[in-house]
Write a structure and sequence with these properties.
The protein is of the alpha/beta class. The protein has six helices and five strands, in the order αβαβαβαβαβα. The chain has one domain: Rossmann fold (3-Layer(aba) Sandwich). It has a five-stranded parallel β-sheet with strand order 2-1-3-4-5. The chain is globular. The N terminus is likely disordered.
């Protein structure tokens, strides 16, 4: 008999039943304060009519747990978390979700094989620039 899922990873409600324009988002960043700031931006107000429900993961292992437990519409990911993590790349591909890369070093994107991926959230970011990049990423995914 499989062990029960930890309560911290269980989804208490069916998101689609709660709001028709709900985006389930995951922020993956080793810096907890950055992850919490992005969660605040996502949760503060609707983005182009879309309400975001946001989870945070500080590190690739915690992110994989979340990605195995839930389907996400949007993942905001610090590119440092991808270094040497083919398992995380594979899981993101299986999710088929929009991915917004966040980095303080945009020149490293090509070195990681992410050439041509737009938009990119450049750190440090303002709330306005974060919202603009998130909306652009969601719009691109829905095009």
């Amino acid at each position: 008999m499989p062990s029960p899922m930890p309560s911290s990873l269980q989804s208490p409600v069916d998101d689609a039943a709660v709001a028709p324009h709900l985006c389930r988002a995951l922020v993956i960043d080793a810096e907890e304060l950055v992850a919490l700031d992005l969660r605040r931006v996502l949760s503060a107000s609707p983005l182009n009519g879309t309400t975001c429900r946001c989870d945070c993961a500080t590190g690739a292992d915690a992110a994989l747990q979340r990605l195995h437990a839930f389907h996400y519409d949007l993942v905001i990911l610090d590119i440092r978390e991808l270094e040497g993590r083919d398992d995380l790349r594979d899981q993101l591909k299986r999710q088929g979700c929009a991915v917004l890369f966040a980095t303080a070093f945009p020149e490293r994107i090509a070195a990681l094989g992410l050439h041509g991926h737009e938009p990119v959230l450049v750190k440090p970011f303002s709330e306005a620039s974060a919202k603009a990049q998130i909306v652009a990423c969601l719009d691109q995914a829905n095009a």
